[in-house]
Specification:
Elements (H helix, E strand, L loop, with lengths): L2 E4 L6 H11 L3 H9 L5 H8 L15 H14 L2 E5 L4 H16 L3 E5 L12 H9 L2 E7 L6 H9 L3 E5 L13 E3 L15 H13 L1 H4 L3 H10 L6 H16 L3 H9 L11 H18 L3 H8 L3 H36 L8 E6 L6 H12 L3 E7 L2 E7 L6 H6 L5 E6 L3 E7 L3 H15 L8 E4 L1 E2 L7 H7 L14 E14 L5 E8 L2 E7 L6 H5 L4 E12 L2 E13 L3 H9 L7 H8 L5 H10 L6 H11 L3 E5 L2 H13 L7 E4 L10 E5 L13 E4 L6 H10 L4 E4 L6 H11 L3 H14 L5 E5 H8 L3 H13 L3 E5 L4 E6 L12 H24 L1
Helix pairs in contact: 1-2, 5-8, 5-10, 5-14, 8-10, 10-11, 10-13, 12-15, 13-15, 14-15, 15-16, 21-25, 22-31, 28-29, 28-30
Family: Belongs to the RecJ family.
Pfam families: DHH (PF01368), DHHA1 (PF02272), RecJ_OB (PF17768)
GO molecular function: 5'-3' exonuclease activity; nucleic acid binding
């Protein structure tokens, strides 16, 4: 169950139309600009057409003039310079730019990238001693250093100058370096504070050698900017646009080798931010996670094609190893969550395990946070110490939350959506309790419900290659300028099939008003059974061009897909009711357990509510993890259409028979539940919406409940739907006799024949549901063989019999008879109890 929600609920269409006219663009593009906070002509023109003139003066950054003087002085004096970076893509690319520019200036410059596992992030004392022993006279930090107060002091004591360049938030005290270049400094007046570490390094490069010369490295700056997930607006947008263009026009050997190692089939001239974020950056990052980040740095700086090819191959192998370890960690974590985490009450997931790979737990935490819609802290334990990574959800500032837990950390740092920390193993349980206590006050149940946002709702007829060309003006896409996501509602579909080696994806064709649109839904293959029976789909995705056999077609790349919540689809779901009356459901209603005193108590404490629908609406608006049990088709139809009318159906999902084994469930309508396999662990409230067919059902349900709250909200008025169900489905002896006579009469010329099902129904005076059940019974009694044919025809082959048959010997008929008796008894009881 996912809630589809527009990014902006009430667009100002007058302002959007005005912007559309002034810019001479479509209303759709104008709306997308307006939703991004771009509301005037000048700002829109600058956004749609980024240019180098939009880059700010690098000397507007604090201490830039001091940094330039210090570095140029060191170069002129022949001092050895160390560029101290980080092991992620931002740190690697920052180091590559700074090293290249320093060497271009004639400096003796060496890199230092700390080891993730033995040294951790940032400047450290051991590294400074090593650099001192190597004769380094100046350290330039890139993508780190802003909190290195003690380390900078040590460097000065050893006679080493330090220039800090960083983009992370500042602590209360700045390091006493020769220069501290950071747009987040409290005294900074720089117009754009959202540069990545590589953006700050690039600006320093511009100050050192000029923009024209620094443009040789803007491709590397683009890699780091996209990989660090900084907002792709302002200067970042300019850097990435021109960086992508440089990659297309003059591809660096290392980037080309990495592209080829990733197995990308498109020509590199097609590169975009998605390629960087999901193909190139993970491979560069893998070096720092699995082996040594120096491989990624060497790859970007090498001028040797053979060397870059070999390095790219190594990085691809590192990435494959990382993926394998990541899958294993995630599977282990899911098992731990199932066993130890109560997702109904815990707003945070805190997991720790000996042997987890410290370089991979951050990625795993991010995927688990996306899966469970809660902040996740993953901790790799070793000898009583834990090194952790945390990832958040959009509604929570994780850094500010963890600040309140600071006393449990040995070391800690991060930002709103991610954090890293060290913690003693003995303090983990206390951290878990404290964090959940904080979040129980900060987050509401709605905050952990999965929202899928979309930019605009469109129809297939609105989509064309020309519309795609116009939307491309919004590129490059990334954080704060996401690729537009469009909702197509209640679309019919055809040719749905599972694709991919493990059938992980869906391929289908959407259609509206006779217009088709190809659609690929990656990682949605597990929804095939749920979706293939639907009449219509709601799909959220982005638009692009797909080339196949030289032919280009517009394609929707679906991020999410669900059955549409419209009358046609709901009616189709309701019509499946009789096909889902299972043996397990019947058994739950006829196998008597316990005694009636419990029924007296539970019905006495949960009286029939005259306003049960209003109660239900108020309840689900205030609570999640609700399981609503429905037993009859009539009440199912009433419930679904009522919830749709009151706009509450979008926070529900619907199933027959089994609630499944989903770890995260919010609100579920379950029809004809098989109690023997029912897993109530994900639920807080169990709501019996209509009358079951026996007291046995309530007794078995109560036996399943542990700490859930049971709500019984049915009454006498709903009994009519149970009666109607039995009338439509349950065969009497008279029904069976009438059907058999009709079958024998039709066989008077031949024991094998085809006949319209409607003729048998009419001749026997029964319903279609009784016909199929009756034929099943006769087949099990070896009185006939049958098969349903197309066009409403039935093939019948009557078999000879030599002895009298007792219908009660058949399990189906016996169960029907017992169910009717059980309901008759319970019907009397309910009427007496409530009247």
């Amino acid at each position: 169950m996912y809630i589809y929600k527009p990014i902006v609920s009430n667009p100002d269409y007058d302002m959007i139309q005005n912007l559309s006219r002034k810019l001479n663009v479509s209303p759709l593009l104008a709306q997308l600009l307006w939703q991004r906070g771009i509301t005037d002509e000048a700002t829109a023109a600058a956004f749609l057409h980024p240019s180098l003139s939009q880059l700010h003066d690098p000397y507007a950054l604090p201490d830039m003039d001091v940094a330039v003087r210090c570095i140029k002085g060191a170069v002129q004096s022949g001092a050895k310079i160390a560029v101290y970076g980080d092991y992620d893509v931002d740190g690697i690319t920052s180091s590559a730019i700074m090293l290249s520019i320093l060497r271009e200036m004639g400096a003796e410059a060496i890199p230092y990238l700390p080891d993730r596992f033995s040294e951790g992030y940032g400047l450290n004392s051991d590294a400074i001693y090593k650099l001192h022993d190597q004769g380094v006279g100046l350290i330039i930090t890139v993508d780190c250093g802003i909190t290195a107060v003690e380390e900078v002091k040590l460097a000065h004591e050893l006679g080493i100058q330090v220039v800090v360049t960083d983009h992370h938030h500042c602590a209360d005290e700045l390091p006493d370096a020769q220069a501290v270049v950071n747009p987040h400094r409290p005294d900074a007046t720089y117009p754009f504070a959202s540069l990545a570490g590589v953006g700050v390094a690039f600006k320093l490069g511009c100050a050192l050698i000029g923009l024209d010369a620094a443009m040789d490295y803007i491709d590397i700056a683009a890699l780091g900017t996209v990989a660090d997930i900084v907002p792709l607006v302002g200067e970042n947008r300019v850097i990435v646009k021109y960086g992508l263009q440089r990659i297309k026009d003059n591809t660096r050997l290392g980037i080309k080798a990495l592209w080829q190692a990733a197995g990308l089939k498109d020509d590199i001239s097609c590169i975009n931010t998605e390629h960087i974020a999901f193909q190139l950056a993970p491979r560069l990052n893998a070096a720092g996670r699995m082996s040594s980040a120096i491989k990624g740095l060497t790859l970007l700086m090498s001028q040797d094609a053979d060397e870059t090819a070999a390095l790219a191959k190594d990085l691809d192998a590192d990435n494959r190893q990382r993926q394998s370890i990541e899958r294993q960690i995630i599977q282990e974590a899911i098992g731990m969550i199932d066993d130890t985490v109560d997702l109904r009450r815990d707003f945070a997931i805190v997991l720790a395990k000996e042997g987890w790979h410290q370089g991979v737990i951050g990625i795993a935490a991010g995927k688990l946070a996306e899966m469970y819609h809660r902040p996740v802290l993953m901790i790799a334990l070793s000898e009583g110490m834990g090194h952790g990574s945390a990832r958040s959800i959009s509604s929570l500032d994780l850094y500010q939350t963890l600040v309140q837990c600071r006393k449990y950390f040995v070391a800690f740092g991060g930002h709103a959506q991610a954090a890293g920390f060290s913690i003693l193993e003995e303090d983990i349980n206390a951290l878990r309790r404290k964090l959940n206590a904080i979040l129980s006050d900060v987050l509401s149940p709605q905050d952990v419900m999965p929202l899928i946002h979309y930019d605009a709702s469109i129809n297939i007829e609105d989509i064309s290659p020309a519309a795609l060309d116009e939307l491309s003006l919004l590129e490059p896409f990334g954080d704060a300028n996401e690729e537009p996501a469009f909702l197509i509602s209640a679309a019919s579909f055809k040719d749905m099939r599972e694709v991919g080696a493990d059938k992980a994806h869906l391929k289908l064709c959407l259609t509206q008003d006779g217009i088709d649109l190809d659609c690929i839904a990656f990682r949605n293959g597990n929804k095939y059974q749920e979706l293939c029976c639907c009449q219509g789909l709601d799909v959220i995705g982005s638009l692009g061009l797909n080339t196949w056999n030289g032919v280009q077609k517009v394609q929707l790349k679906a991020a999410h897909i669900r059955p549409s919540i419209d009358k046609q689809n709901l009616d189709a779901f309701i019509c499946q009711y009789y096909d889902n009356i299972t043996d397990g459901f019947i058994a739950d209603n006829i196998e008597v357990l316990g005694d009636m005193s419990f029924i007296d108590d539970v019905l006495g404490s949960s009286p029939h509510l005259e306003q049960r629908d209003q109660w239900l609406l108020e309840h689900v608006s205030d609570n999640i993890n609700n399981l609503i049990l429905v037993n009859t088709q009539g009440q199912l139809a009433h419930l679904l259409h009522m919830l749709k009318e009151r706009k509450a159906l979008e926070i529900m999902d619907m199933h027959y028979n089994s609630a499944g084994n989903d770890s995260v469930v919010y609100n579920r309508i379950l029809v004809n539940a098989e109690l023997s396999t029912l897993n109530l662990k994900p639920f807080t409230h169990v709501i019996l919406y209509d009358v079951p067919f026996s007291a046995s059902y309530i007794l078995k349900l109560a036996d399943k409940i542990t700490d859930q709250e049971l709500h019984i909200i049915f009454g006498v008025d709903q009994l009519k739907d149970n009666i109607e169900m039995l009338k439509q489905w349950a065969l009497s002896r008279g029904d069976m006799e009438s059907l058999y006579k009709a079958l024998r009469y039709a066989a008077r010329r031949s024991v094998q024949y085809n006949i319209k099902a409607d003729l048998l129904i009419e001749a026997a005076g029964i319903t279609v549901h009784k016909l199929t059940k009756g034929l099943d019974i006769f087949q099990q009694l070896n009185l006939l063989r049958y098969s349903m044919l197309s066009d409403g025809m039935v093939y019948i082959c009557m078999l000879p019999y030599s002895k009298r048959m007792d219908l009660r010997d058949n399990a189906i008929y016996s169960a029907m008879e017992r169910l009717q008796k059980a309901f008759k008894d319970f019907e009397k009881y309910v009427k007496i109890k409530y009247n």
